[in-house]
Specification:
heterodimer; A: 348 residues; alpha/beta; TIM Barrel; B: 111 residues; mainly alpha; AhpD-like; 5 helices
Chain lengths: 348, 111
C-alpha cells in the first residue's frame, strides 16, 4: 500500500484535512468547535503546564503502511531528520531540565543516526522512550537493536492494536501479529517487560475502527491474560490511544461514511478533566526538519507553534515555549474524549 | 409513511418518547441508567449481555448500540459472536424443547 502522499491523494494535504474535519458537510460544520468547549471550562487559550517531554519525530519513513497511521508513514516517505538537526535537539536538551526524550516516526529505528543519537541522549542522563512498531526489530539490519536499547535503559513503547491476530493484521497488515509476537518474546528474553530488570516494555492499543478505546485498566488485564496464556509474553503497561481524525484514519472515516458519527461521538464525549491533562501541555514535538509543534498530530497538520513562540529547534527557548498558546483545532477532540488520550494512554 | 420502519437516526431520538409521557419516560431512563451501571455485574459484562439480548429480541437499534458498546468495552469479535450464539441457542432450544410437548401429544393420540 502506498502512502496518501505517494498516491497524490487530496487528503495528504493538511489544509484539506483541516477543511474536512471542519466543513465536510452541514452536520459536521454545525458541530461544537474545540475552542468553544475550552472556553466554556476556562481553558482558552490553552497554555502549557511546563514541558517535560521532548518528543522528536526523526522521520516519516517506515517499513509498514498501517491503515490508521496519522503520519501517513511508509517505505515511500523520505523525510528523515539530519544529524545536524539532531545536534540542535541535543543542544536544546543539554541546557534544560527536561528529563524525557520520546523518539517517534515512522519507524524511528530507520533514521541512520538513530544509534548515535540514542547514545548521545543517554550520555546526558535523560530517560529515552522509543516508539517501535515491533516488526522493524524482526529484520536482520535491526535485530541487534533490542540489546542496544536494553544496554542504555531505553523504554520501548510499541504498537499492538489488539491481542488478537485478526484485528491486529486488519489494521497493520497481514503477518504483523505473528512478527510482533516473535519480537515481544525476544524483548522478554533480554529482560524487557520483567519487573525485576527495570526495562520497561509498554504496549499501545488503538481502536481498529470508528469507536473509542475501552477502559485502559480493564483492557490491560485482558491483554496480560491473553498474551501470557497464548504466548507466555509479559509487558509492563498498556496505553489506550484514541485515533484522531487526520491523515489515513481520516481517509478511512470519510471512505467508510463514519466521519460525522465519529466527530459527533468525540465531541459529545468531551471530558473537561481530560482537557486539563492533554499532552500538549507538557510536551513539545519536533518535526524531522526541526520545526516545533504542540504535538505530533499538529505536526502532521503542519500547525506549528504560534503566537510568538519559537517555531524551529534552532531558536529553542524553553521560557518562551513554556508560556506559549497551544494551537488547537477540531482534531483535538480526539484527546479529550472519554478518559482522554495521549502518547502515554488515558489521561484521567 | 416512511419507506422503511427502521431509521438509524431514530435511535438518537429515543429520549423524545418523553414528549408524550414524561413521567414514565423519566422513570424508564433512570431505571435504564441504573441497570447498566457497575454493580454486582460490571458495566462491561452487562454490555455483552445486552448484545445477546438485542439479538434475541431482534432490535436493530439495540444491535447497533451494543455492538459499538461491546467494542468500546474491549470485547473481541469472537467473544461478541459467542454471545450471539448464546442468544441463538436459547431461542433455538426454546423451540426444540416444545418438541417434548409434541411427543407427549403424539403419545396421547396414538394407539
Amino acid at each position: 500500500m502506498k502512502s496518501l502522499i505517494a498516491q497524490s491523494h487530496s487528503l495528504s494535504d493538511p489544509n484539506v484535512q483541516i477543511d474536512v474535519i471542519n466543513n465536510h458537510n452541514d452536520k459536521v460544520k454545525n458541530l461544537d468547535k474545540f475552542e468553544k468547549k475550552l472556553d466554556e471550562i476556562g481553558l482558552l487559550p490553552l497554555k502549557p503546564t511546563g514541558i517535560e517531554i521532548f518528543q522528536i519525530n526523526v522521520g516519516y519513513m517506515c517499513n509498514m503502511t498501517c491503515k490508521h497511521c496519522h503520519v501517513d508513514a511508509g517505505p515511500d516517505r523520505k523525510e528523515i531528520m539530519t544529524k545536524e538537526t539532531l545536534q540542535y535537539c541535543l543542544d536544546a536538551l543539554k541546557d534544560s531540565d527536561i528529563q524525557t526524550v520520546d523518539l517517534t516516526g515512522g519507524a524511528p529505528e530507520m533514521n541512520p543516526h538513530f544509534r548515535w543519537f540514542v547514545d548521545e541522549v543517554s550520555k546526558l542522563g535523560k530517560h529515552i522512550i522509543v516508539r517501535s512498531n515491533l516488526t522493524i526489530l524482526d529484520t536482520r539490519k535491526f535485530e541487534d537493536l533490542p540489546q542496544f536499547m536494553a544496554d542504555r535503559g531505553v523504554e520501548i513503547t510499541c504498537s499492538l492494536p489488539f491481542y488478537s491476530k485478526r484485528r491486529t493484521d486488519i489494521q497493520r497488515g497481514e503477518g504483523t501479529y505473528d512478527k510482533s509476537m516473535t519480537v515481544l518474546k525476544i524483548l522478554n528474553e533480554i529482560g524487557y517487560g520483567k519487573e525485576e530488570t527495570g526495562l520497561l516494555l509498554n504496549l499501545v492499543y488503538n481502536p481498529v475502527g470508528a469507536f473509542l478505546p475501552p477502559d485502559q485498566e480493564s483492557l490491560k488485564q485482558d491483554y496480560k491474560e491473553r498474551l501470557w496464556n497464548d504466548h507466555s509474553i509479559v509487558f509492563n503497561d498498556l496505553f489506550t490511544i484514541t485515533n484522531l481524525p487526520i491523515s489515513r484514519y481520516l481517509h478511512f472515516l470519510v471512505m467508510s461514511g463514519n466521519l460525522e458519527e465519529y466527530m459527533e461521538k468525540l465531541i459529545t464525549s468531551f471530558n473537561p478533566s481530560a482537557a486539563m491533562g492533554v499532552m500538549c501541555r507538557n510536551t513539545i514535538s519536533i518535526g524531522w526538519d526541526g520545526s516545533l509543534y504542540d504535538c505530533d498530530f499538529n505536526q502532521m497538520l503542519q500547525m506549528k507553534t504560534n503566537h510568538g513562540a519559537p517555531d524551529h529547534i534552532k531558536n529553542w527557548n524553553l521560557k518562551k515555549l513554556n508560556s506559549r498558546e497551544i494551537v488547537v483545532n477540531q482534531h483535538c477532540f480526539g484527546c479529550t474524549a472519554g478518559a482522554g488520550s495521549s502518547c502515554g494512554g488515558a489521561v484521567t | 409513511m416512511e419507506k422503511t420502519y427502521y431509521n438509524p437516526d431514530d435511535l438518537k431520538k429515543f429520549g423524545n418518547v418523553g414528549e408524550f409521557q414524561k413521567e414514565l419516560a423519566d422513570k424508564f431512563f433512570d431505571y435504564y441508567g441504573t441497570v447498566f451501571a457497575d454493580s454486582a455485574l460490571s458495566a462491561r459484562e452487562k454490555s455483552l449481555i445486552a448484545l445477546a439480548v438485542a439479538h434475541a429480541v431482534q432490535c436493530p437499534y439495540c444491535i447497533d448500540a451494543y455492538t459499538e458498546e461491546s467494542l468500546e468495552k474491549g470485547y473481541s469479535e469472537e467473544q461478541m459472536m459467542e454471545a450471539v450464539h448464546v442468544a441463538t441457542a436459547i431461542r433455538g432450544g426454546a423451540s426444540l424443547v416444545h418438541g417434548v410437548q409434541m411427543m407427549n401429544k403424539v403419545d396421547k393420540l396414538s394407539m
